[in-house]
Design brief:
single chain, globular, eight-stranded mixed sheet, alpha/beta, 317 residues
């Protein structure tokens, strides 16, 4: 019989020699709390992807600017069609896929009312809808982005109460001219985990549009997997984060997906006031976004019928 090797007591208690010389060290450069420390990317992971995407976006934008400038100067709607091509290409270069549920309203002009969580909303909505944006006046001070926004015929509005009437008149003029517009009634970006209250003042121009269509936008996939709560700050742009830092964090990651729900359009003339119309739009948008954040399939919703005015009471004779 073969002799069996026996270990003495000191040898049994002696710890095994580690197979790896240096322990695994995760990167703490991705500020996502504890999960970022454990599951974060390595120091060099994704940097080449981010640089490639940044260079591609800049080159495509520099090529598209003179083309769009020429189409804006020419008659017709060629500049609107090319704007969709421009935004679609940006989404492809960023690795963003778009899933659209529902149909956009065809009887224009249409005022599209959507939730807002990031600058990425402009890319995915611009790639889906033939419409211009209503943006904040601060964009006019951003290099290159202001040029793209002006060529896209963006209507700039300020967050101050002064000058509101003039800005509303500019929006009404565009709607009266047959242009559809995309409006973010929240007035700012959210953290992606909720829909902020819609401001009824933004819908004071709804009477100039033929239809008002609520739109829900949720970024629900990251790297082919369902996006969970800890992934939403990667898509959402809010707080004091500058746009370059947010872009760099997202561009290092694999591709994502945005789901856009186009709900049943509403006729503004059927609603008694703008507050009731705002509440109806906010209700369907928030409900659909909550369903998408739970990674459940969502379908276009129809807002409840507008409240009917009460008949006047007759005085006793």
């Amino acid at each position: 019989m073969q002799a069996t090797a026996r270990l003495t007591a000191p040898e049994v208690l002696r710890p095994r020699k580690p197979l790896r010389r240096k322990p695994i060290q995760f990167s703490a450069s991705d500020p996502e709390g504890l999960w970022g420390d454990v599951l974060g990317v390595r120091p060099l992971g994704g940097r080449f992807r981010a640089v490639r995407r940044l260079v591609s976006l800049l080159l495509w934008t520099l090529v598209a600017i003179p083309i769009q400038a020429l189409l804006v100067a020419l008659p017709g709607r060629g500049h609107i069609a090319f704007a969709r091509v421009y935004h679609r290409t940006l989404c492809a270069l960023m690795g963003l896929r778009i899933q659209v549920v529902g149909e956009p309203a065809r009887q224009g002009p249409v005022l599209f009312v959507a939730n807002h969580s990031s600058w990425l909303d402009v890319l995915v909505l611009g790639a889906t809808l033939e419409a211009s944006f209503v943006g904040k006046s601060e964009i006019e001070g951003w290099p290159l982005i202001r040029t793209v926004a002006k060529l896209g015929r963006t209507v700039f509005v300020s967050r101050k109460r002064t000058g509101t009437k003039g800005e509303a008149d500019a929006i009404r003029t565009r709607l009266a001219g047959g242009d559809s517009l995309i409006l973010f009634p929240e007035g700012t970006t959210s953290d992606g985990g909720r829909v902020l209250p819609f401001r009824s003042a933004f819908l004071s121009v709804a009477d100039s549009a033929r239809l008002v269509q609520p739109v829900s936008v949720v970024f629900d996939r990251l790297g082919g997997l369902p996006a969970c709560r800890r992934d939403r700050p990667l898509f959402a742009w809010y707080g004091d984060t500058d746009i370059l830092t947010h872009f760099w964090r997202l561009a290092r990651r694999p591709g994502g997906r945005a789901t856009i729900i186009l709900h049943a359009p509403l006729d503004a003339s059927e609603w008694p006031d703008r507050k009731a119309l705002t509440a109806a739009c906010a209700g369907v948008v928030a409900e659909s976004c909550a369903t998408l954040r739970q990674n459940r399939p969502a379908q276009p919703l129809r807002a409840p019928a507008p409240p009917r005015p009460r008949p006047a009471e007759r005085l006793p004779v």
